[in-house]
Amino acid sequence: MLEQFSRTQLILGQEAVEKLNNSRVIVFGIGGVGGFVVEALVRSGIGAIDIVDNDDVCLSNINRQIIATHDTVGKVKVDAMEKRILSINPQCKITKHKCFFLPETKEQFDFTQYDYIVDAVDTVTAKIALVMAAKEANVPIISSMGAGNKINPTMFEVADIYKTSVCPLAKVMRKELKKRGVEKLKVVYSKEKALTPKVEKNSSDVEKEDVNDDSKRRAVPGSVSFVPPVVGYIIASEIIKDITGIRNDA
Question: How far is CA 174 from the centre of its chain?
Fold first, then answer.
């Protein structure tokens, strides 16, 4: 194994590092949460990763997205993420999908090829479709619930969807998944009550970003630099622990 993962091997062991190197993970949504999921997985030694997003980097991404800098504004997100991945681990096998996960793009993905699926997308429609696809393929999935309009990163926790509370997105997901017979779903969510975005009168609209047809009717949420990374790292840690079977949750 590459020397760069020697510190990981010291705590997880050689067998676990080899498992990570032989694993393939797909991340849907390379934004504030998903970008940090990818970052942590690649630095942990995941051997193959698929990245899925249809957006370009824009100026208002800079406050919270790992790939967003003034140098990458205007670039395709999956291209910017690919460049960063290769600068961290040139041996990582990368598959890019420049699209949103929608009914018309579902056939582009063979979910049986993955060891883990990450849902870091914004719309309920896409989230539910991903959960159902994961269930059909019998592949583990973890979903990010609402991270927008929140400023307390210490309140995020891992839970089954049916044990969540407060989070409006989790409430909708519970209802929809129950109707579809889904018995469990690992999620990262927060009980923090979301703040109301401060939109001044006569101010220009927030730049339209990360928006597909399903989300155009929703208000663009506010976000800060220190919340999405925490959610992303929590998700990545769950994947690493599940793949290696090593936990210290006591």
Answer: 19
Distance, in Å, from the CA atom of 192 to the CA atom of 146, rounded to the nearest integer, reads 10
Q: What residue type is 122 in one-letter code?
A: D
Domain-located, residue 217: yes
Task: Tell me the per-residue pLDDT of 172-200, one tens digit each, with 9 for 90 and over.
Answer: 999 999 999 999 999 999 999 999 998 76
Question: What is the rounded distance in angstroms from the CA atom of residue 118 to the CA atom of residue 37?
Answer: 8
Task: Count structural domains, the chain.
Answer: 1
The b/e string for 70-99 (b: 16+ C-beta within 10 A; e otherwise) is eebeebbbbbbbbebbeeebeebebebbee
Here the CATH number for the domain that contains residue 71 is 3.40.50.720
Asked, for residue 3, whether it belongs to a domain, the answer is no
Residue 50, φ and ψ in degrees, nearest 5 = -105, 135
